[in-house]
Amino acid sequence: MTATVEEQFEEVVAHDRRIEPRDWMPEAYRKTMVRQIAQHAHSEIIGMQPEGAWIARAPSLRRKAILLAKVQDEAGHGLYLYSAAETLGVDRGDLTNRLITGAQKYSSIFNYPTLSFADVGVIGWLVDGAAICNQVPLCRSSYGPYARAMVRICKEESFHQRQGYELLLTMMRGSEGQREMVQDATNRWWWPSLMMFGPPDADSPNTAQSMRWRIKRHTNDELRQRFVDMTVPQAAALGVALPDPALRWNAERGANDFGQPDWDEFKRVVGGDGPCNAQRIAHRRAAQENGAWVREAALAHAAKHPRFAPFSAPNQPDSGRPKVQSGGGLA
Ligand code: BYC
């Protein structure tokens, strides 16, 4: 008896193989993937802003070059992720509109301000550290294009985390004022970093289904615990205190106990009412509007020279344009 498409889908997921763009998938799976990948892409693009604000004020040419490279990597991550989303039949222009109209979310973490250059180091250490914890398991996510994008992204995130930690180590060897800046930045970014993993499992409406589909490989709370356990010895080596009086080693569990972030604050920030939400969206909207002429020029050029036209996404209706073969010739 031949298997139904549903059975084939379940079989692929159950055996840890990958769902590819041309495979049949349940509509709810497709929607979940679009939601998660788009949110992730938006986070990378909005995430350029807090650190980007320090490029022109970096304290040395070396620090400026490192920061510039990191922020450029984030743009690249956004682009791989929008490409992965397009394999599901959505259009990146439409996704950007959904971001700037508030119809789609981006990570809460990027709605906090960067007040000193120590924030650049702490973002690398804690925010990229949390991103690595969350994203390494996503390299085994069931949707092929997302899992593959994640492999490269994680390699780059690892460089980002090291650059942040190295900056902080340098500052901690500096003046008393520099050590205070590092401690202050750690105090401000610690709780928002814990929020990056999403709400507690009991309040996470999407986790159970995403785990069944092997989109997510661990729950929000499991990853948050892993992040805390990974970060505690790093903080000790650096000589900074983590601002949580409840944080202590629990020998019985073989893990750290720790306090809960302010989940009301999380809801406010995700709902659009964080310290920098309006500024982040206004900046992104201005970039989209100011770049309109570039997109128009690119489309006009592509219309005149069809071999430069973008590929049509497999799940989209054929655009009617001549197809480009892998060798570059027209089909
Ligand atoms: N912020 O049921 P849940 C980076 C939403 S960028 C805002 O647990 P799920 C970097 C969630 O979307 C890293 N919203 O959801 C870049 C859902 O809302 P909807 C970004 C959040 O999807 C530049 C609702 O709350 N990483 O590393 O099962 C510089 C309920 O949540 C947040 C990713 O995007 C949040 N923190 O799990 C430096 C990773 N948390 O859509 C660094 C990929 C939850 O139902 N994404 N929400 O209305 C994921 O792993 C998962 O989507 C999440 C949430 C763990 C984030």
Total number of helices: 13
Bound molecules: benzoyl coenzyme A
Strand content: under 5%
Q: What overall form do the CA principal axes indicate? A: globular
Q: Could you state the oligomeric state of the chains shown?
A: single chain
In total, how many beta strands?
Answer: 2
Task: Indicate the structural class.
Answer: mainly alpha
Task: Summarize the structure in short.
By secondary structure, the chain is mainly alpha-helical. It has helices at 5-14, 27-46, 48-52, 61-86, 92-100, 117-135, 144-172, 176-195, 207-212, 220-238, 263-270, 277-290, 292-304, and strands at residues 248-250, 255-257. A two-stranded antiparallel sheet has the order 1-2.
Give an overview of the whole structure.
By secondary structure, this protein is an all-alpha fold. Helices cover 60% and strands 2% of the residues. It is built from 13 helices and two strands; from the N terminus they run H-H-H-H-H-H-H-H-H-H-E-E-H-H-H. The chain has helices at residues 5-14, 27-46, 48-52, 61-86, 92-100, 117-135, 144-172, 176-195, 207-212, 220-238, 263-270, 277-290, 292-304, and strands spanning 248-250, 255-257. It has a two-stranded antiparallel sheet with strand order 1-2. The structure holds benzoyl coenzyme A. Benzoyl coenzyme A is lined by residues 35-36, 39-40, 43-44, 47, 74, 105, 107-108, 127-128, 131, 134, 195-199, 204-207, 210, 216, 220, 270.
